[in-house]
Every structure is written in structure tokens, then in C-alpha cells.
Amino acid sequence: MTEKHSHPLRWLRARMRATTLLGIMLISASLLSIGMVSYFLLKLVRSELRQEATRRNTMLAASIAHETGNSLSGFIQSLRILTDSEFANNLGIQAVAKAFPEFEYIEISDFNGQVYANTATGSHDAFDISKRDYFLKTVEASTAQVSATFISERTYQPTAVLSVSGSDRIVAGHLNLRSLTDYITGIEEHDYRISVIDDHGYYIANTDSEAVYRRDTIALQAWYSDARKTMSGSRFHTENGLELFTTWSATSIGSWLIVISQPASSILEEAHRLQRSIALVIIVFLIISIGITLLIIRYIAKDIQLLTRHTQQLAAGNYEAALHYSGFSDFNPLAENFDLMFEAVRHREENLKQNERQISASLKEKEILLKEIHHRVKNNLQLVISLLSLKAGGNENYIDLFADSIDRIRVMSMIHEMLYKTENLAELNLAEYMKTITEHLLDNFSGSAQRPVLKANLQMIQVDIDTAIPCGLIINELLTNSLKYGRSKQTDSLQLLITLNQDADRAITLDIADNGPGLPPDYSPEHSNTLGMQLILSLTDQLGGSWQLDGTNGTRWIIHIPDRNRKNQPAQYLR
Amino acid sequence: MYTVRKTGIISRAAAFGCSVLLALCSLLVSACDSSKPVRIGLAASFSGKDYMLGVDGRNAIELFVHQVNSGGGVHGRPIELHTRDLTSSLDTVLPSDTDLIEAGVEAIIGHFTSSEVEAALSLVNKYQIPLLSPAATSESLSGKDDYFFRTVMSSRQDGTVLADHMKQSGYSDLLIISTALNPAYVNTYTDGLYSAMNVVADLRYTAISEINSALLATVPPFDCVLIIGSSIDTGTIAQTLKAAGLEKQLYASGWAGNDDLIEYGGRSVENLLFVHQINPELPDIVEFSKIFKDVYGSDPGYGAIEAWDTMLYLHTVLLARKPNEKLYDTIKRVRDFQGISGHIYIDTYGDASRPLYLKAVENGRIAIRGIVGD
């Protein structure tokens, strides 16, 4: 028989544990797979989104830089017109200023820095710009220059001076950069911020115009030093606790940076959305998986309960309830085995009952037979008694001669009579037996004389027939001797004291005493040649017992019989 | 007996538990406290007509804070700088300072003009917040046991020194042209001059365009001019004077002591004289200028240098501060510090004592002619 068949429930539990473990492993593996796929997918999506943002913002920044550069170039070209002697007068300068209102004012100076024409409100004629940085650079480089930006002391707007040199003059235009802020504000969208940074790190255009007027600077930001080394680039960085994606592109003129900053969260919004969706899918998957697993476990538990109930019915002896199993197919063989087991147990139980009935009938028959035997033995012994009585033929001498034998046979007959009248054919009550013998002997020996006084203290002791017959014969001999020889002239009233006891070792003590004349001092039972005394001693010896005799004050016999597998009975006394 | 012993054990256990809890709490609190930033306010004009001094100072202060925080802060605590733009308007001083105090700053750095300080004084005294100015030099702020401190010296001497020079040069008729927006500072200068010189006119402007040829034509004859204004204003006025044919010996206030004076003044400011508390040739200032230029692309003005000195003073104070000591008490304790302008002493009233230089524009450069008093 296999382990599976010998311990079905243990196998089932193991199978259930394995199934649960497999389920958990399957869920874990699925989650791990989803997690890994999601991780790489998110990484890919993030990378794509960053690349896309980089492309888009770089293109936008480059486009603005290009546009700004073109504008500056246009402004410079307009100033170059004034280097021509034909236009280098107040009329020409006013015309250019009118055409390009972005100029706060335009001034023309000689190479000594002496201004001789300008469009400023309030005349700056004869002003000396010889120490101005833009003038010095233009003179030195002889090419168009864009000055460092500053806040105009007149307009309080961010300003840069564009300057070009002619053959005998320097033309400088003070360009109001407010238009740059207007320009980028027009193209800015809600999720990114465009700024223009000058070559010293100051904002010169920003949708937050206050940052421009405050001369806010990004010079201390870590990414800026890198940005200054390249014409364009991008970087993720943190500013005031906010992660930003910043792209920059430098203008060809002026080396200003067009900076586009966008919260990283807005760039990666799609990735975050995907991340949230994946998280939702994983949660839903987890809930469904756990639900299915719990459902399976519940079904399995239900099936196990069904099978358990079925086995409980088997234990209770109900073999009629059939198992109609319709659960998991995995359990079908087990359920079939349970049915087979039920059928086998039921069949075996029926056979056992049949055998029991047959054995009971047979036993009953044997009991009847045994009783009949006891009855017939008793009848035969009665017949022997009758034959012996008839043999005596009414002759007193013969009667006395056969009386002892008749009594001994009657004692044996009594046992068979008691046995066939009781239910228990193997044992009889020794106390009852002694009482019967005693009463019979007292009836026989009393005659016309005064009936002896009997004091009996008999413990109820069950003994088998092999002990009962010798005991009965011993009692018969002892009582017969007392009744025969216990009467004397001094004691008209014979008193008999009979005690039957069983000690803790189940040894039986029989104590029979009378108040008769006793025995001669030199009397020795071993040397007696009477049949009765020989019977007492030989039967005591047969029972493995011992005896004590006291003949000094009446006669007292104490017979001690050791245990011979007697049943333990609670001590009861028959009085 | 048993009960008593049991109670004793419980008491000891409870006491031990409480001690451990308290120790943990204090450890936690001290850990939090050690990483808690030191909040410092910065209020100055970064926009408007006085923006140059404010922006210059702000750049230096931000650079200082950046360096300190990069180096681990002050005793492990970073400095958290809160800035407010006063927009060159006295009306914004109180709201801005109130805002900073409400933000929990322990001290306010800034107020680069004396008038801004005067406007803020009652507020900082009321809330007992130390105000450390890098550039306010009005004499009206001196000798007061209040919450105002400065790392520059009062301009009280400046007017007297210039008057002495004027007299030594044989000048007697003085034209004063000054801004009307910073009277506290201007008065410090003029107080010493009125008694020493014949002031032919005291023109006060709110916009530079007000000083023009027409106005100047109404002024009685003079042989020297003192211009009290920013470097750009001073340079521009010098050009206006020259354009009006009024080329006289020019004097200026220390306020104008920047390179912008020459840029905007051109050749018209040549030989202009002024007194100033900064010597840009000092090695520490040269070193600082190099660092500043690396970051911001231009040389620091005196506003940046003075602001750096103020931050050095604050840093010295923060380092010397005892646990749970009020910043004001530490400031009162720390009476001197090593600035990039030299060793600077602060008196009982929070006024600095430092060298005063006589400077002049020579060959398109600001040159030091000597130390006043030597």
C-alpha cells in the first residue's frame, strides 16, 4: 500500500500546501515578470520622453536663439547705415530710431568718444562716452559689439548697447530688451518657462519680469558653468527643491543663452501615468490572484470537510451514507478510494456480525449442553445416592456406613446443581456453596437433638469448579466431624463458627471451629487412618494449601488456600 | 515589604524609561537643531534707481552663503537666505522687513542706503532683530544703543575732509548737487560743509534729468562742485556740467566710488576727488575680486566688497555664538573681526571704525591719494 493510500488526509494536506505554495510562486513570478517588464518599459518610455523633450526644447531654444540673433543682426545692420557719412546726422539717426523703436536712443560719436548726434530725450550732445565699455571695445575690435546688459538709468529696463564703427565714427544704439520678454511671453506655454540670460548670468528676459528688473542671476547654479562652455545642451537639475529639465542654446551674437526650463514632472507625465496604470494593473492582478487563490483554497477546504465528514460517519458506523463527490478532479481518486474503503469496511462489519451471531448461537448451544451435563451429572449422583440408600436397605448400620459417602457425593452433586441453575458455568460462589452444604448437614444431623447454633461469616468468593469441589469436600468433612463428635455432655448446645475470608493476595482462609470436647493432646491428623481426615489433608494438599488444627478448646480448623487465578471480587459477607 | 520593593523596582524602571526617553528626545531635538538652517534676511534695492549697489551687494552675499553652505554651513547648520527687493522706494522698507521677520529670520543684512535704515529702525528695534548694514553711513545712525549695526564707518568725517581739501585748494564757493532720495546720507555730508564753505546752491534732484543746462544757468558763480549721488548720477551730472561749460573742480561722495563713475563721467570726472572706506588694492580684496569675477563676470563694486565684510562679521558672530544665545547678544559681544578691508572694530553702539581713503580719478582710473589722518 502506498503512502497516498495509507494516509489520505495527510497526503491531501501536503497536496494542499503544495498547491498553495505553487499558487503563491505563480503569483510572485507573475508579479516579478510584470514588475521587470514595467521597469524596463518605464525606463524606455522615460528615455524616449527625455529625448523627445530634449529634441523639442533644443529646437525651440535654437529657434529662439536664431531669431534673437537675427534681430540683433538686424539692429546692428540698421546702425551700420549710420556709419555712412550720408546718413550720419540728426536726420539719419532720427529716421533709424523711428524705424527701430526698440532703441532707447542712438548716439554717434567720434573716435574720441565725443557724442555729436543722439536721439536721447534731453540732449546728450557733447557727452563723452570715451570710457564706456562698449565704446572702448568697438574702437579696439572695429567690429560690431554687444555690451554687457544693464538696467537703463532712464527707462529702468534691461538694456544692451549695440555698437558699430565706421571710418570716423562709432554708432551706438541703446537697445531696450523689454521686447525680448514680450517675445518669449508670446511663445511660452504653460508647462515651460523661457528665459534669456546674458553672458554674466543675469536674466534679461523672463516672463517673471521682476526677475529681470531685480537683476536675478543664475551664475551660482551648478548647471550654468557647464552651459557657458557649450553652445547648446540640456540637463536635469534641482532648483528650490523642484526638479527641472533645462535646455539652452546660445545666440550667435551677444552669447546670450536662451534657456527653456520645464518641470521634470511635466515631461515625464506620460511615464508617471503609465507608472500609475501599471501600479493599478499590478494591484488588480494581485487582488484577483489572491481572490482566486482564496477561492481555490476554500473549495479545497470544502472538499476536505466533505471527505472528513464522510470519514466521521464511517467512524460512527454509518456505512449507508454514500459520498457523492463532484469537486476537484484531483480528489476524485481519493473520493473513489473512500467509497471503496466504505464498502470494504461495511462488508467486513457484516461478516463480523454474522460470525458473532453464529458464535453466540454456538455458545448458547454449548451452555445448554453444559447445563444439561451438569444436570445429568447431578441426577446421576442423586441416582448414586439413591442406590447407596437403597443398598443400605433401612439397616441403621449400613445407613451409617454409607452416610459419609452419600454426603460426599451430595456435596459434589450440589455443585452441579448450582452450576446448571446459574448463568455462569465456569465459576460459583464459594460462600453460597458452603451455606448450602452447611444447611444440608445441619438438617441431616440435627434429628431430634437440639439444632446446633451456627455463626457464619462468609465472604463472597467466586471460585472455579476445580477449587469448589475440594473445598466443598473439606468443609463437608470438617462440619461432619464437628456435628458427629462435637456434642458432649458438658455442651448440650453445639456452637459452630464458620469463617470464610480472602486476603489481599486472594488467598482463601477457611476457619471452622466448634465448642465441642476438642481433641486429645497427642492427636495427629497425619496419623489418622480415617478416610475423612485423609480426604481433608489430601484435598488441602491438592489445592496447594496448608492447615492448622487446634483441639484444646473445642476443635478449630484453619485451612489456608493460596490463589489459583481467582477473580478479584469486592469483599462481601454472607451472614 | 514585598510591595515596597516592587514599588521601588517599578519606580526605578519608570525613572530609567523616562530618562532614556528624555535622552532620545533631547538627542532628536539636538539633531534637528543642528541641521536647522540659520535664517538670514537680505533687504536691499535690486531694482529701481539704486539697484546697482543692491545687486552688487546681493551677488556678494549670495556667493558668501553659497560658499559657507558648500563648506558644511555654520556648525553644521546651513544659512538660509531670504531676500526682499526694496525697489529703491522707502515705502517698501517696512513691508519687506516685516515680511522677513515673519519668515523667522534671525538677522537682516542690508539696507544699503541710510534712508532705508532710518525707515527700518523702529521696526527692527521693536522686534529686536539685528539689522547689519554694509553701506549705510549716515551720522544720524551713530551712537545709538539699538539693533542697528554696520561694518562701515559713518560719513561724518567725509564732508569735513572734503571741505578741508577745498579750502586748502583755495576754493570758497561751493555748488552742491545731491539726490533728494537719501537725505540722511546727504545731510551727513552737507552738515560739515555748510559751516566751512560758501554754498552757493544746494540742488536736490529726484530724477537726473532735472539737472540740466537750464537749471545750472540759474546757479550763482562757484569754483567747486560737490555731487552727492550714485556713481552713474555723479558721472552723468559731471558730463552735464561740462556740457554746460561749467567745468570746475569736482568732489563726490563715497557713494559714487565705483568704476561706473568713470564710465558714465568720461573725461569730465578726471581729477574728481572723494573719500572712501575701500582700498581695492588690499590683497584680500584682490583675491575676493578674482573669485567674484569668476562667478559674475565683472569686478565687484564697493557694495560687494562691503557686503562681503558684513557677511564675514556675521559669520564670525555665528561661529562665536553660544548655545541658545540670542544673536543680538553675540553681536554685542563680538567687537571686532577680520574683514577683507582689514581688521574692523565695532564700537558699543554697533558703529565700525576703519581707515578712510582720499581718492581721485586719475587717467581714467580711481587712484588712492592717501589715507585720511596720516
Total domains of chain A? 2
Q: Per DSSP, what share of the residues of chain A sits in E-state strands of 2 or more residues?
A: 15-25%
Low-pLDDT sequence parts of chain A: 566-575
Can you list the strand order of the major beta sheet of chain B? Answer: 7-6-8-9-10-14-15
Shape by Cα distribution of chain A: rod-shaped
Radius of gyration of chain B: 25 Å
Instruction: Name the CATH superfamily assignment of the largest domain in chain A.
Output: PAS domain
Question: Greatest chain-chain interface?
Answer: A-B, 30 and 33 residues
The CATH class of the largest domain in chain B turns out to be Alpha Beta
Largest sheet of chain B: 7 strands, mixed
Structural class of chain A: alpha+beta
CATH architecture field of the largest domain in chain B: 3-Layer(aba) Sandwich
What is the CATH architecture annotation of the largest domain in chain A?
Answer: 2-Layer Sandwich
Low-pLDDT stretches of chain B are: 1-10
Q: Which outline of chain B best applies?
A: elongated
| Radius of gyration of CA atoms of chain A, rounded to a whole number | 68 Å
Question: Which percent bin holds the helix content of chain B?
Answer: 40-55%
Quaternary organisation of the protein chains: heterodimer
The number of distinct β-strands of chain A equals: 19
**Could you name the CATH topology of the largest domain in chain B?**
Rossmann fold
Describe the structure.
The complex is a heterodimer of chains A (575) and B (374). Chain A is an alpha+beta fold and 575 residues long. Chain A is built from 14 helices and 19 strands. Chain A has 2 domains: 1-288, PAS domain (Beta-Lactamase, 2-Layer Sandwich); 428-574, Heat Shock Protein 90 (2-Layer Sandwich). In chain A, the strands form 4 sheets. In chain A, strands 1, 2, 3, 4, 5 and 6 form a 6-stranded antiparallel β-sheet that branches. Chain A has a 6-stranded mixed β-sheet with strand order 17-18-16-15-13-19, covered by helices on one side. Chain B is α/β, with parallel strands linked by helices. Chain B folds into 2 domains: 37-153 and 280-353, Rossmann fold; 156-276, Response regulator (Rossmann fold, 3-Layer(aba) Sandwich), CATH 3.40.50.2300. Chain B has helices at 2-35, 51-70, 93-102, 114-127, 156-168, 183-194, 213-217, 231-243, 260-265, 283-296, 302-320, 327-333; strands at residues 38-44, 79-85, 107-110, 131-133, 148-150, 173-179, 198-205, 224-228, 249-252, 273-276, 336-339, 342-346, 352-353, 357-362, 365-371. In chain B, helix 6 links the parallel strand 6 (173-179) and strand 7 (198-205). The termini of chain B are far apart. The chains are: A alpha+beta (575), B alpha/beta (374).
